[in-house]
Design goal:
single chain, 424 residues, alpha+beta, BirA Bifunctional Protein, domain 2, Rossmann fold, 8-stranded mixed sheet, 14 helices, elongated, binds adenosine monophosphate
């Protein structure tokens, strides 16, 4: 028997990817902090009805990809692992009465999500998103702010050619008529469409625009653009977003087929795309306005907008471009010694060095000192402190390959700290 493997679509992240993932996550929190978005940590599971209501029963992520948890004990409800973060954020906004705070309420999170998707490169069953939500402002200014925060985050990581593919999906006043126009456009070729697309033609023709199936893609190429069918209010909002982004200097591509998969979007919808990447891998994230969602989840009607950027895709893009940050460095100082009696002392000295701000580890073996030095070099250490049998310490500078005379503990620790400060 070969033993256990990680489940399909659920990955171990080893170095240097683990550090890159952590770095991109830290930068996400920092970007949110800098823009005045309050951090929010949401539970990893919610009532599955929340997602069914918010995301919509016909969407792939609810119809096919939701991980439901069997109710147990006194749990009366079925929970589901979160497939996206927006529904939870809006649930929290309502639950904690955030409507009484100054609007918009700006929230940010980095969330691990779960979707029972077909795993492939850039598509996993567990992945991480950086999410920004601004709830309580319907004007185009907040759209500009949110879109620009995501674009700047990606640019500052080194993905400088990121593009914003922008569309408007209208509102309840103008979308229904457009949907009928779209249905009329696809109906003549309905027999050529895949089974899934045929059912979309009935239930949600908008989704035909982001279908990957050949027949739908071909017909979508000549579909009327929703931006030509917006009501006056939606058209004015869209025009303000387009011209505002030009002022800010964000690269925008008009993208009439970006409709985002979810039912709750209204007006502004966009994707962050890297040109030239294969398939889905260039799709780093997306966002949209969701003016109906707070009300749909039981709150007072409240406009809102947000984005989700996939950290896993960001790391893949950085890797493809040779931009991965270095893995976490090994310890700068290794504390060596050969007697078993000095083990506790070695561990204590390493802890003291760390408390003083250096990175350090003890060699906790009793092997020959030469082997311990080799191990320190392999770790990229700058210095080794050798604990002598009499308790004195010897400082060895691995960069200069020089060694001092054994000396008293305090002086050697101070010298080691100075050395890594100068050479590190
Ligand atoms: P979505 O929430 O589906 O609009 O996706 C927003 C972003 O999340 C995408 O552009 C991807 O970067 C990322 N993403 C979505 N699904 C997955 C997945 N299964 N695996 C990895 N990243 C994903």
């Amino acid at each position: 028997m070969s033993g256990f493997q990680s489940p399909r679509g659920l990955r171990d992240l080893l170095e240097p990817l683990a550090s890159a993932h952590g770095w991109a996550t830290d930068r996400a929190w920092a970007a949110a902090d800098a823009a005045g978005y309050a951090r929010i940590e949401l539970p990893i599971a919610e009532e599955s009805a929340l997602f069914e209501r918010a995301v919509g029963g016909t969407s792939d992520i609810v119809a096919k990809e939701l991980y439901r948890l069997e109710p147990r004990g006194d749990d009366a409800v079925t929970l589901a692992l979160r497939p996206e973060a927006t529904a939870g954020a809006v649930r929290a906004y309502i639950q904690h009465g955030m409507r009484s705070q100054p609007q918009p309420v700006r929230l940010a999170t980095v969330a691990q999500l779960f979707r029972y998707d077909r795993p492939q490169k850039g598509r996993y069953r567990q992945f991480t998103q950086f999410d920004i939500e601004a709830i309580g402002d319907g004007g185009p200014g907040i759209d500009l702010e949110v879109i620009a925060i995501g674009a700047a985050y990606l640019r500052e990581l080194g993905l400088t050619d990121v593009q914003v593919h922008l569309n408007s999906v209208g509102c309840t006043a103008c979308r229904p008529a457009y949907v009928e126009t779209l249905r009329a456009h696809f109906t003549p070729v309905s027999q050529e469409l895949s089974e899934v697309d045929q059912s979309r033609l009935t239930t949600n023709p908008l989704r035909l625009l982001d279908s990957n199936e050949t027949a739908a893609v071909k017909r979508a190429a000549t579909a009327p653009a929703i931006t030509d069918h917006l009501c006056a209010d939606c058209a004015a909002h869209h025009a303000a977003v387009v011209s505002g982004l030009a002022t800010i200097g964000v690269t925008v591509v008009a993208a009439p087929r970006v409709v985002r998969g979810l039912d709750y979007y209204t007006r502004t919808a966009w994707e962050y795309l890297l040109p030239g990447e294969q398939g889905q891998q260039g799709a780093l994230g997306g966002g949209g306005r969701y003016d109906g969602l707070v009300e749909l989840l039981g709150g007072t009607p409240t406009p809102a907008i947000g984005f989700a950027i996939g950290i896993d895709r960001v790391v893949l893009a950085l890797e493809a471009r040779g931009l991965l940050p270095a893995a976490a460095a090994g310890p700068a100082i290794v504390v060596a010694g050969i007697e078993a009696e000095s083990l506790a002392n070695r561990v204590a000295i390493a802890a003291e060095l760390r408390a003083a701000g250096a990175s350090a580890r003890a060699d906790v073996s009793t092997r020959k000192i030469g082997k311990q030095l080799e191990g320190a070099v392999r770790d990229g250490a700058l210095a080794v402190i050798i604990v002598e049998p009499d308790g004195r310490l010897t400082l060895r500078d691995l960069v200069k390959a020089s060694q001092a005379e054994p000396a008293e503990r305090g002086g050697v620790i101070a010298a080691a700290l100075r050395l890594v400060q100068n050479e590190g």
